[in-house]
Structures
1.
Amino acid sequence: MDGDIVAATLLLFIVIAVHNRQVYSRYDDRKAVRRTMLGQDVDTIVDAVMDRISEGGPTAVTRLGPSGTGGNMATLPGVAVSGPAGCGTSTQNLATIQAAAPPYEAPNSQTTAVVEIPNGSATQVAELPPSTTAHLATVAQTIPGTLIPLSKNTKKGFVVGVSDPTCTGKINSLNCGWYYTWGPTAPAVAPANGAIPFTPMIWNISKTPNISAVVSALKITGQGANSEPLLGYNEPDGTNASAQGNMTVGEAVQSWPLLVSTGRILAAPVMYGSLVHPPAAPNPNCIPAPTGVTGPVMVNIANSGMPANKVDLDPTIWLDNFLIQLAQTSNPVFPSIMTIHWYGPPKSQSFLSYVDAVWAKYNLPIWVTEYSCADWKATCCNPQTQHTAGFDWSLPDDSNISTNATAQFMTQTVQGMMARHYVDRFSWKERFLLANPDGSAVSAAYPLTGVPDSLMAASNPDVMNQSALFASYQHKPSSVPPLTPLGKLYASF
């Protein structure tokens, strides 16, 4: 082969490798900044943040000393800072705001500071939970110069479709740190004036109109711009065409380069079935079988330039088959995030054990994009839905919120995910309320407003009423419904 051609080819491979390392390490870099511990040297944090500013990416600039010792917020050259009420403010380039115990150590402390990049193009909001081992929170964009409250829990999110006219209001009501809509676009009116990060999703390739234009619009236009990760297909292993992605592995692998072309960090397609247990019967969407693979196989699912991440994959599991076949393509780009859906009885340990098992298997950050309590074995009606015995399926209300099983499940799982460094995000999933078979409200605590969209019936038992966050009997209400007691609990985290 001609020497110039060899050199050019080698250079091309180097460029591709460097590009992949830059693009697909961004998620890890961002987490490294976000998880910097309070006890670390301020200069270390400043250096990391300055690197992110130089790239034009999202940054956090807050640092507190150990609990009870005060501390200060490390600020950066060329960055104007506004402090929360009671802590003083400064617009000096090298300002320092003293961090007295309140409000930083108060149980309900929220916003720490607003930091404006000098060109005025973005304002960064950083939040620290009241803990000596708290990590720097994910940074959100807001209106320059405006101090806004953020959720105490930037892992917490919500999913609601853009066709719901109350989409924005619901997200605002829940005090979320992020959200998604099962699609590639945010609502026309962005929640919290655009301060809450929106994460796009490609639900299914063939059912996404004008997919080429959609993908083009999702492409990153510059370092840090439009840089939220992209969620992969929604339950492609499920065969319910109206409610699930319903894609074969072959279709998913073939269309994956479209998602890769956006330049975004990619989250794995989220499964309807288990990620850690083979299906009891062959999944009709888990086809074709990977070439030359007849049983479990070890595959390195790390992207180019990243440390090896060898995972034992079972080709009878849809996602594992997908990853195996992706590895068999040239220059594969693997997901950098694992996603989970989970529904079941109010057994928090079962849920958290599954999360732990997914982490142990794939060794990738986890997003729980849908989860809640659901009784799939419920039947109807005698005179109302009959639930699976052995569990408390009662509706949470103000009188039982501290003992209700669903409320306890929510509290325990949120606390469990907050304590797990590998769980980066989670989102509770609700449905609108089903009315009783006679059209009446299910409880005085959940009053009927308007005509209910759906009644309990033999073909429509009450599977998830106890998990509702909003007291609405309509799928698409005309005004933002009030929060249920469980919704108030979720908003409080």
2.
Amino acid sequence: MNIITMMSRSTLTKSLSLKRLVAAASPATSTSSKMRMLSTPANTTGFPTPILFDYETIKKNLTVADAISAVEEAFGALANGKVDVPMPMHIGIEESNVAGPGDCHIKGGYVFGAKTFTVKLACVSFYKNVTERNLPAGSGVFVVVDAAMGCPLGIFQENRIMTDLRTGAAGAVAVKYTTRDDDSNVIGFIGTGAIARNMARAAATVRPNFIGVAYGLDVDSARTFANEMSAELGVKFSVASSSEELCGQSNVIFTQTTGSDHVLKLEHLRKGTTIIASGSDQPTKQELPNNVLASADKYVADLIKQTSRVGELRGAIEANAMTTDDVYAELGELVNGTKVGRENDQELIVVDLTGTGAQDAAIGQVAWNKLSQL
């Protein structure tokens, strides 16, 4: 009798859970809004079931502007030792007849005093998706976890959009502390994909009256980027015919490429240039020549323990052109005021952004706060 009752209750619970899920979820399409996986209160069934947020919901409701202040605060906390950020995990998916090629990165972090922490899984460089399956080359999920109970609150099927947003937010922080605070900035973008768009949007939040210059190997894509960003941001954009031309016009340069080759040369840079590089996040990538880093008046890392292993700094160290002692500051030190950013119009400043778990924790909290209220 007890067994029958337990089975009946189990069946009933599953039935009710399924009904709740179906009632709460939109039709199973890529354009559905938020899918809620509801449960009864924690004191009767255990931890609450996480809410699943699909890509379209995230894309529609989250912007780079939402993330900037939280990411800035996270960098400050990181520099003060108030963020637990483990080194990223990397899983290489070697090509076979059933898998790959591709890469998987796992990052995460907790900012002291925050209500949540975040773990992120990002899959990149699955190029067969593009050539054979008509799918993007990467995807990913954020898991936002309640920092008091240790249970997942939300699962964000962000497919790298949240990663791109938090990278853009870091770009805004870099611009704020390493460029002139006036309307004279000419900002160049080498690489004109999704990250470049978020960098442009982020730059506009802190330097709204800049002039933009775009350069990419795909001229049509660069022209589309320039036209769309000009219309969206209300700033003038032009397209350069070469990296050299872009460098000659720009005093701020964002690089966000695949990192398979160097994208500029030292001799092409103007005096007083800020370079914000975000393309290197693996030991196989390097956008900037070693002599650019070694010649910089100030080299700024998002996190030294990462840039020395997977960022631009790694290449300079391996070439014996720099050591970690040559690092001027981490970005959070500029935020906290313990180190000064740009001091004059002659300094060459390089900011190396590899992407930190502190940023993931910050945008995870922002996303949960905003999207859970929809």
3.
Amino acid sequence: MDIPDLPLMDDLWGRIALDASRDPEVTYDIRRDDGFLDADLSPAESELSREVPPERAEVLAFAHGRVLDLGCGPGRYLLWLQERGLEVVGIDASPGALQVARERGAREVRLMPIDGIDFAPASFDTALFMGNTLGVGGGIAIVAERLARLHPMIRPGGCLITDVKEPGATERAVHKAYHAARRREGRYPGELRIRLEYAGHATPWFDFTLVNAESVSQAAAETGWQMREEFGSPQLGVVILTRK
């Protein structure tokens, strides 16, 4: 497939979030490096929705104490927990997305990349990696790195809630072929290379990994966490870890 040569825009995700917060008809696209296009995605129906699906609400009930939302974006899960009485700190690398989160009522958000988190030991009781943020910006090895970095910042007995997705849980031939190509390269099949496209602009290409439950379990065993619960299906599930 032909891939258009588009000019880059700094913080394009923030631009999308800001525009969509003012116009619910705004959509954007995600393009994979093989040319596959996931088109007309609506932030108003996902990241900007104030509703949380029942199966996610069931899992978020495990959140307690002070919560760290990593890659909070415009604040979907942060606000849902905040409205239920929890103290939530959100971090994100997008200034625009954090502006939207503040405008929507987020009390504490910080401009901070996931791999640059810097909080005192035992600062939080719960951590969230929702919206596939555990695998944004790296390959499968980044899972263990992030769990290890986060570990001292969570109090003993605290929990981590992350969504998971099995790369092979698809019926679409175009995705099966992509994952198979990764296996032939000796790589984890869920390692993608993607970019966002919006209003004639694009982000730089970046790594995005669909992290499955098995990979989270393996990384947890290496970094001081243990599996507690697993919800949902391989195609779209959630794992809860306990900090030892």
